[in-house]
Amino acid sequence: MPLTLQSRLPHVGTTVFSTMSALAAQHGAVNLGQGFPDFACDRRLIDAVDAAMRADHNQYPLMTGVPALRQAVAAKIAALYGHPYDADREITITAGATQGILTALLAVVHPGDEVIVLEPCYDSYAPNIELAGGRVVRVPLSSSYRPDFERIAAALSPDTRAIVINTPHNPSATVWTEAEMRQLEALLAGSEVLVVSDEVYEHMVFDGGLHQSAARFPGLAERSFIVSSFGKTYHVTGWKVGYVAAPAALMAEFRKVHQYNVFTVNSPMQHGLAAYMADPAPYLQLPAFYQAKRDLFRAGLAATKLRLLPSEGSYFQCVDYSAISDMADAEFCAWLTREIGVAAIPMSAFSVEAPVQRVIRFCFAKTEATLQQALGKLAQL
After folding, report:
1. Which of 57, 123, 213, 379 could tie 81 with a disulfide, CB 3.0–4.6 Å?
2. How far is 283 from 295, CA to CA, in rounded Å?
3. What's residue 232's pLDDT?
4. DSSP labels for 145-180?
5. Secondary element (H or E) of residue 346
6. What is the mean pLDDT of residues 162-173?
7. Residue 355: predicted pLDDT
8. Quick one: pLDDT at residue 16?
9. Is residue 140 within 8 Å of residue 354, measured between CB atoms?
10. How far apart are CA 97 and CA 257, in angstroms?
Protein backbone atom coordinates (compact mmCIF):
# COMPACT_ATOMS: atom_id res chain seq x y z
CA MET A 1 0.00 0.00 0.00
CA PRO A 2 1.26 3.53 -0.72
CA LEU A 3 2.29 5.58 2.29
CA THR A 4 -0.06 8.31 3.43
CA LEU A 5 1.84 11.54 3.89
CA GLN A 6 0.39 14.85 5.00
CA SER A 7 2.53 17.61 3.53
CA ARG A 8 3.79 20.40 5.77
CA LEU A 9 3.70 22.68 2.72
CA PRO A 10 0.84 21.36 0.58
CA HIS A 11 0.71 24.41 -1.71
CA VAL A 12 4.43 24.52 -2.48
CA GLY A 13 5.83 23.13 -5.72
CA THR A 14 8.91 23.81 -7.83
CA THR A 15 9.96 27.45 -7.53
CA VAL A 16 9.62 29.77 -10.50
CA PHE A 17 13.38 30.36 -10.30
CA SER A 18 14.09 26.71 -11.04
CA THR A 19 11.41 26.64 -13.72
CA MET A 20 12.70 29.71 -15.54
CA SER A 21 16.35 28.61 -15.28
CA ALA A 22 15.44 25.24 -16.78
CA LEU A 23 13.49 26.95 -19.58
CA ALA A 24 16.43 29.28 -20.25
CA ALA A 25 18.79 26.31 -20.51
CA GLN A 26 16.36 24.48 -22.81
CA HIS A 27 16.18 27.42 -25.23
CA GLY A 28 19.73 28.72 -24.87
CA ALA A 29 18.41 32.00 -23.50
CA VAL A 30 20.38 34.62 -21.57
CA ASN A 31 19.35 33.98 -17.98
CA LEU A 32 18.55 37.25 -16.21
CA GLY A 33 16.07 35.47 -13.98
CA GLN A 34 17.61 33.93 -10.89
CA GLY A 35 19.56 36.41 -8.77
CA PHE A 36 23.20 35.43 -8.82
CA PRO A 37 26.34 36.82 -10.52
CA ASP A 38 27.89 35.19 -13.58
CA PHE A 39 31.33 36.65 -12.79
CA ALA A 40 34.11 35.56 -10.44
CA CYS A 41 34.71 36.76 -6.91
CA ASP A 42 37.91 38.52 -5.81
CA ARG A 43 40.81 36.04 -6.03
CA ARG A 44 42.08 37.41 -2.69
CA LEU A 45 39.01 35.92 -1.04
CA ILE A 46 39.76 32.54 -2.63
CA ASP A 47 43.33 32.86 -1.40
CA ALA A 48 42.12 33.63 2.14
CA VAL A 49 39.93 30.51 2.19
CA ASP A 50 42.76 28.42 0.73
CA ALA A 51 45.08 29.72 3.45
CA ALA A 52 42.49 28.84 6.10
CA MET A 53 42.21 25.29 4.76
CA ARG A 54 46.00 24.92 4.69
CA ALA A 55 46.14 26.25 8.25
CA ASP A 56 43.90 23.30 9.17
CA HIS A 57 40.75 25.26 9.93
CA ASN A 58 38.80 22.25 8.70
CA GLN A 59 36.99 21.00 11.80
CA TYR A 60 33.82 22.21 13.49
CA PRO A 61 34.01 25.86 14.49
CA LEU A 62 32.02 27.20 17.41
CA MET A 63 28.26 26.79 17.02
CA THR A 64 27.87 30.58 17.01
CA GLY A 65 30.53 31.12 14.35
CA VAL A 66 34.25 31.82 14.19
CA PRO A 67 34.99 34.60 16.75
CA ALA A 68 37.07 36.66 14.32
CA LEU A 69 34.22 36.73 11.80
CA ARG A 70 31.62 37.66 14.42
CA GLN A 71 33.94 40.45 15.59
CA ALA A 72 34.38 41.68 12.01
CA VAL A 73 30.58 41.76 11.50
CA ALA A 74 30.02 43.63 14.76
CA ALA A 75 32.71 46.17 13.82
CA LYS A 76 31.17 46.70 10.38
CA ILE A 77 27.67 47.26 11.78
CA ALA A 78 29.01 49.69 14.41
CA ALA A 79 30.97 51.63 11.77
CA LEU A 80 28.16 51.85 9.21
CA TYR A 81 25.03 51.99 11.35
CA GLY A 82 26.18 53.10 14.79
CA HIS A 83 24.84 50.15 16.77
CA PRO A 84 27.29 48.28 19.07
CA TYR A 85 26.40 44.58 18.91
CA ASP A 86 28.26 42.24 21.26
CA ALA A 87 30.12 39.81 18.99
CA ASP A 88 29.91 37.01 21.55
CA ARG A 89 26.23 37.25 22.49
CA GLU A 90 24.51 39.08 19.62
CA ILE A 91 26.02 37.87 16.31
CA THR A 92 25.59 34.37 14.83
CA ILE A 93 27.01 33.11 11.54
CA THR A 94 24.43 31.21 9.47
CA ALA A 95 24.30 28.89 6.48
CA GLY A 96 23.10 31.71 4.27
CA ALA A 97 20.48 34.38 4.87
CA THR A 98 17.56 32.07 4.10
CA GLN A 99 18.55 29.79 6.98
CA GLY A 100 18.88 32.86 9.18
CA ILE A 101 15.34 33.98 8.38
CA LEU A 102 13.89 30.50 8.91
CA THR A 103 15.74 30.07 12.21
CA ALA A 104 14.57 33.46 13.50
CA LEU A 105 10.96 32.60 12.72
CA LEU A 106 11.21 29.10 14.21
CA ALA A 107 12.71 30.63 17.35
CA VAL A 108 9.90 33.06 18.12
CA VAL A 109 6.74 32.04 16.22
CA HIS A 110 4.34 29.62 17.90
CA PRO A 111 1.27 27.88 16.46
CA GLY A 112 -1.46 30.44 15.92
CA ASP A 113 0.86 33.46 15.94
CA GLU A 114 0.44 35.91 13.07
CA VAL A 115 3.37 37.20 11.03
CA ILE A 116 2.97 40.09 8.62
CA VAL A 117 4.68 39.96 5.23
CA LEU A 118 4.64 42.83 2.75
CA GLU A 119 3.83 41.61 -0.76
CA PRO A 120 5.42 41.20 -3.19
CA CYS A 121 8.17 39.53 -1.16
CA TYR A 122 10.93 36.93 -1.30
CA ASP A 123 9.34 33.54 -1.71
CA SER A 124 10.76 31.85 1.42
CA TYR A 125 8.99 34.06 3.95
CA ALA A 126 5.51 32.53 3.88
CA PRO A 127 6.64 28.86 3.88
CA ASN A 128 9.01 29.65 6.76
CA ILE A 129 6.14 31.09 8.80
CA GLU A 130 3.96 28.09 8.01
CA LEU A 131 6.70 25.66 9.05
CA ALA A 132 6.78 27.44 12.42
CA GLY A 133 3.02 26.95 12.75
CA GLY A 134 2.28 30.64 12.28
CA ARG A 135 -0.35 32.31 10.13
CA VAL A 136 0.80 34.47 7.24
CA VAL A 137 -0.85 37.91 7.13
CA ARG A 138 -0.26 39.41 3.70
CA VAL A 139 -0.20 43.20 3.43
CA PRO A 140 0.30 44.63 -0.06
CA LEU A 141 2.89 47.29 -0.69
CA SER A 142 1.65 50.41 -2.46
CA SER A 143 1.42 50.56 -6.24
CA SER A 144 4.96 52.00 -6.22
CA TYR A 145 6.15 49.16 -3.94
CA ARG A 146 6.46 51.28 -0.81
CA PRO A 147 5.22 50.32 2.68
CA ASP A 148 1.59 51.27 3.29
CA PHE A 149 1.51 52.05 7.00
CA GLU A 150 -2.25 52.40 7.18
CA ARG A 151 -2.61 48.83 5.94
CA ILE A 152 0.20 47.61 8.20
CA ALA A 153 -1.47 49.24 11.21
CA ALA A 154 -4.80 47.68 10.28
CA ALA A 155 -3.15 44.25 10.04
CA LEU A 156 -1.69 44.41 13.55
CA SER A 157 -3.63 42.37 16.09
CA PRO A 158 -3.14 40.86 19.56
CA ASP A 159 -1.91 37.73 17.76
CA THR A 160 0.81 39.53 15.74
CA ARG A 161 4.17 38.06 16.69
CA ALA A 162 6.40 39.58 14.01
CA ILE A 163 6.68 41.49 10.76
CA VAL A 164 9.17 40.66 8.01
CA ILE A 165 10.65 43.64 6.17
CA ASN A 166 13.16 43.77 3.33
CA THR A 167 15.31 46.70 2.18
CA PRO A 168 16.76 47.05 -0.40
CA HIS A 169 13.75 45.19 -1.68
CA ASN A 170 13.63 42.01 -3.69
CA PRO A 171 11.92 42.02 -6.17
CA SER A 172 11.07 45.71 -6.69
CA ALA A 173 14.52 47.28 -6.04
CA THR A 174 13.01 49.98 -3.84
CA VAL A 175 14.86 51.16 -0.72
CA TRP A 176 13.15 52.17 2.50
CA THR A 177 13.75 55.78 3.54
CA GLU A 178 14.73 57.01 6.99
CA ALA A 179 11.22 58.43 7.37
CA GLU A 180 9.66 55.05 6.58
CA MET A 181 11.88 53.26 9.09
CA ARG A 182 10.99 55.82 11.74
CA GLN A 183 7.31 55.36 10.92
CA LEU A 184 7.64 51.63 11.49
CA GLU A 185 9.55 52.30 14.71
CA ALA A 186 6.75 54.54 15.96
CA LEU A 187 4.04 52.11 14.88
CA LEU A 188 5.57 49.22 16.84
CA ALA A 189 6.56 51.27 19.90
CA GLY A 190 5.18 49.76 23.09
CA SER A 191 4.16 46.52 21.37
CA GLU A 192 5.55 43.00 21.63
CA VAL A 193 5.88 42.70 17.84
CA LEU A 194 9.29 41.53 16.62
CA VAL A 195 10.95 42.42 13.31
CA VAL A 196 12.83 40.16 10.92
CA SER A 197 14.78 42.61 8.77
CA ASP A 198 16.11 41.06 5.56
CA GLU A 199 19.04 43.29 4.57
CA VAL A 200 20.97 41.03 2.22
CA TYR A 201 21.38 43.81 -0.38
CA GLU A 202 22.58 46.32 2.24
CA HIS A 203 25.66 47.29 0.21
CA MET A 204 23.79 47.90 -3.04
CA VAL A 205 22.11 51.30 -2.69
CA PHE A 206 22.49 53.71 -5.59
CA ASP A 207 22.58 57.40 -6.47
CA GLY A 208 24.19 58.40 -3.19
CA GLY A 209 21.44 56.88 -1.05
CA LEU A 210 21.98 55.26 2.33
CA HIS A 211 20.89 51.84 3.50
CA GLN A 212 18.56 52.36 6.45
CA SER A 213 19.35 49.29 8.52
CA ALA A 214 17.05 48.49 11.41
CA ALA A 215 20.23 48.73 13.49
CA ARG A 216 20.20 52.53 13.01
CA PHE A 217 16.95 52.93 14.96
CA PRO A 218 16.97 52.03 18.67
CA GLY A 219 13.26 51.20 18.77
CA LEU A 220 13.70 48.75 15.90
CA ALA A 221 17.10 47.37 16.89
CA GLU A 222 15.75 46.29 20.27
CA ARG A 223 13.16 44.05 18.62
CA SER A 224 14.89 42.99 15.38
CA PHE A 225 16.68 40.03 13.91
CA ILE A 226 18.86 41.66 11.22
CA VAL A 227 19.84 39.25 8.44
CA SER A 228 22.56 39.71 5.83
CA SER A 229 24.56 37.67 3.33
CA PHE A 230 28.25 37.33 2.57
CA GLY A 231 27.23 35.53 -0.62
CA LYS A 232 25.44 38.60 -1.99
CA THR A 233 28.11 41.06 -0.83
CA TYR A 234 31.16 39.15 -2.08
CA HIS A 235 29.74 37.44 -5.21
CA VAL A 236 29.85 33.94 -3.68
CA THR A 237 26.18 32.97 -3.43
CA GLY A 238 27.09 29.29 -3.65
CA TRP A 239 28.99 29.41 -0.38
CA LYS A 240 25.73 29.96 1.55
CA VAL A 241 27.19 31.97 4.43
CA GLY A 242 25.34 34.80 6.15
CA TYR A 243 24.81 36.26 9.57
CA VAL A 244 22.13 37.41 11.99
CA ALA A 245 22.45 40.22 14.53
CA ALA A 246 19.94 40.59 17.38
CA PRO A 247 19.76 41.68 21.03
CA ALA A 248 21.13 39.07 23.43
CA ALA A 249 17.72 37.84 24.64
CA LEU A 250 16.50 37.27 21.08
CA MET A 251 19.81 35.77 20.01
CA ALA A 252 19.72 33.28 22.87
CA GLU A 253 16.44 31.90 21.48
CA PHE A 254 17.79 32.02 17.92
CA ARG A 255 20.80 29.93 18.89
CA LYS A 256 18.64 27.28 20.55
CA VAL A 257 17.14 26.55 17.12
CA HIS A 258 20.33 27.19 15.13
CA GLN A 259 22.28 24.54 17.02
CA TYR A 260 19.77 21.87 16.03
CA ASN A 261 18.94 22.78 12.44
CA VAL A 262 22.48 23.63 11.27
CA PHE A 263 24.69 23.58 14.37
CA THR A 264 27.50 25.48 12.67
CA VAL A 265 28.77 26.76 9.33
CA ASN A 266 31.65 25.91 6.98
CA SER A 267 34.85 26.58 8.93
CA PRO A 268 37.46 27.59 6.30
CA MET A 269 34.97 29.91 4.57
CA GLN A 270 34.40 31.69 7.89
CA HIS A 271 38.12 32.11 8.56
CA GLY A 272 38.68 33.30 4.99
CA LEU A 273 35.84 35.82 5.20
CA ALA A 274 37.14 37.13 8.52
CA ALA A 275 40.57 37.79 7.02
CA TYR A 276 39.06 39.36 3.89
CA MET A 277 36.83 41.72 5.90
CA ALA A 278 39.92 43.43 7.35
CA ASP A 279 39.72 45.59 4.21
CA PRO A 280 36.31 47.32 3.99
CA ALA A 281 36.90 48.53 0.43
CA PRO A 282 35.15 45.61 -1.32
CA TYR A 283 31.77 46.33 0.30
CA LEU A 284 32.24 50.11 0.37
CA GLN A 285 32.85 50.07 -3.39
CA LEU A 286 29.91 47.81 -4.13
CA PRO A 287 27.31 50.56 -4.73
CA ALA A 288 29.39 52.09 -7.54
CA PHE A 289 30.19 48.64 -8.98
CA TYR A 290 26.53 47.67 -9.31
CA GLN A 291 25.30 51.14 -10.23
CA ALA A 292 27.51 51.01 -13.32
CA LYS A 293 25.84 47.74 -14.33
CA ARG A 294 22.40 49.14 -13.56
CA ASP A 295 23.02 52.26 -15.63
CA LEU A 296 24.32 50.28 -18.61
CA PHE A 297 21.31 47.95 -18.47
CA ARG A 298 18.77 50.76 -18.04
CA ALA A 299 20.26 52.71 -20.95
CA GLY A 300 19.80 49.69 -23.21
CA LEU A 301 16.27 48.97 -21.98
CA ALA A 302 15.26 52.58 -22.59
CA ALA A 303 15.48 51.88 -26.32
CA THR A 304 12.73 49.23 -26.04
CA LYS A 305 8.99 49.43 -25.34
CA LEU A 306 9.58 48.20 -21.81
CA ARG A 307 8.81 50.85 -19.18
CA LEU A 308 11.53 51.14 -16.58
CA LEU A 309 10.58 51.14 -12.92
CA PRO A 310 12.95 52.73 -10.38
CA SER A 311 15.95 50.65 -9.29
CA GLU A 312 17.12 52.27 -6.06
CA GLY A 313 19.02 49.27 -4.68
CA SER A 314 19.70 45.51 -4.96
CA TYR A 315 20.79 44.09 -8.32
CA PHE A 316 17.34 43.93 -9.89
CA GLN A 317 15.51 45.95 -12.50
CA CYS A 318 11.74 45.69 -12.90
CA VAL A 319 9.95 46.69 -16.07
CA ASP A 320 6.34 47.11 -17.15
CA TYR A 321 5.67 45.31 -20.44
CA SER A 322 2.03 46.40 -20.92
CA ALA A 323 2.93 48.38 -24.07
CA ILE A 324 4.06 45.10 -25.65
CA SER A 325 1.57 42.46 -24.55
CA ASP A 326 -1.53 41.78 -22.46
CA MET A 327 -0.29 38.30 -21.53
CA ALA A 328 -0.12 37.39 -17.85
CA ASP A 329 3.38 37.90 -16.47
CA ALA A 330 4.28 34.21 -16.17
CA GLU A 331 3.11 33.60 -19.74
CA PHE A 332 5.04 36.64 -20.95
CA CYS A 333 8.24 35.45 -19.24
CA ALA A 334 7.91 32.05 -20.92
CA TRP A 335 7.35 33.75 -24.29
CA LEU A 336 10.29 36.10 -23.72
CA THR A 337 12.54 33.13 -22.97
CA ARG A 338 11.41 31.04 -25.96
CA GLU A 339 11.00 33.72 -28.61
CA ILE A 340 13.37 36.54 -27.62
CA GLY A 341 15.99 34.51 -25.78
CA VAL A 342 16.07 36.31 -22.44
CA ALA A 343 14.78 34.85 -19.17
CA ALA A 344 13.16 36.99 -16.48
CA ILE A 345 11.01 36.37 -13.40
CA PRO A 346 7.28 37.25 -13.26
CA MET A 347 6.36 39.59 -10.40
CA SER A 348 3.41 37.34 -9.53
CA ALA A 349 5.94 34.79 -8.22
CA PHE A 350 6.46 37.07 -5.22
CA SER A 351 2.83 37.60 -4.33
CA VAL A 352 -0.40 35.76 -3.63
CA GLU A 353 -2.96 38.51 -3.17
CA ALA A 354 -1.49 41.52 -5.02
CA PRO A 355 -3.46 42.84 -8.00
CA VAL A 356 -2.48 41.75 -11.51
CA GLN A 357 0.39 43.82 -12.88
CA ARG A 358 2.28 43.40 -16.13
CA VAL A 359 5.67 43.64 -14.46
CA ILE A 360 8.70 41.35 -14.64
CA ARG A 361 12.09 41.35 -12.91
CA PHE A 362 15.55 41.17 -14.48
CA CYS A 363 18.81 40.53 -12.61
CA PHE A 364 21.73 42.70 -13.77
CA ALA A 365 24.42 41.02 -11.61
CA LYS A 366 26.10 39.92 -14.82
CA THR A 367 29.17 40.70 -16.87
CA GLU A 368 28.93 43.56 -19.34
CA ALA A 369 29.13 40.99 -22.15
CA THR A 370 26.12 39.11 -20.77
CA LEU A 371 24.12 42.32 -20.34
CA GLN A 372 24.98 43.47 -23.87
CA GLN A 373 23.97 40.10 -25.26
CA ALA A 374 20.64 40.32 -23.47
CA LEU A 375 20.09 43.90 -24.59
CA GLY A 376 20.77 42.92 -28.19
CA LYS A 377 17.97 40.40 -27.99
CA LEU A 378 15.62 42.70 -26.09
CA ALA A 379 16.10 45.35 -28.78
CA GLN A 380 13.60 43.32 -30.82
CA LEU A 381 10.84 44.40 -28.44
Report:
1. 213
2. 19
3. 97
4. S---HHHHHHH--TTEEEEEEESS-TTT-----HHH
5. strand 345-346
6. 98
7. 67
8. 81
9. yes
10. 15
Beta bridge partners of 226: 197, 245
Q: Considering the chain, what percentage of its residues have pLDDT values greater than 90?
A: 93
**Tell me: the pLDDT tens digits for 244-299?**
999 999 999 999 999 999 999 999 999 999 999 999 999 999 999 999 999 999 99
When the candidates are 3.40.190.10, 3.30.1330.60, 3.40.640.10, 3.40.50.720, the CATH number that belongs to 43-279 is: 3.40.640.10
Domain with CATH 3.90.1150.10 in the chain: 16-41+284-378
Please give the model's pTM, rounded to 2 decimal places.
0.96
Residues 49-95 have pLDDT tens digits of 999 999 999 999 999 999 999 999 999 999 999 999 999 999 999 99
Name the strand (E) or helix (H) holding 242. Answer: strand 242-245
Integer angstrom CA distances of residue 276 from 139, 247, 282 = 39, 26, 9
* Residue 174 CB partners (closer than 8 Å, separation 6+): 144, 145, 146, 167, 168, 310, 312, 313
Where in the sequence of the chain do the CATH 3.40.640.10 domains occur? 43-279
- Peptide bond connecting 171 to the previous residue in cis, omega within 30 degrees of 0: yes
Rg, the chain, Cα only: 21
pLDDT of residue 3: 84
Q: What is the DSSP string of 190-218?
A: TS--EEEEE-TTTT-B-TT-----GGGSH
Instruction: Spell out where 45-155 has E strands.
Output: 91-94, 114-119, 135-140
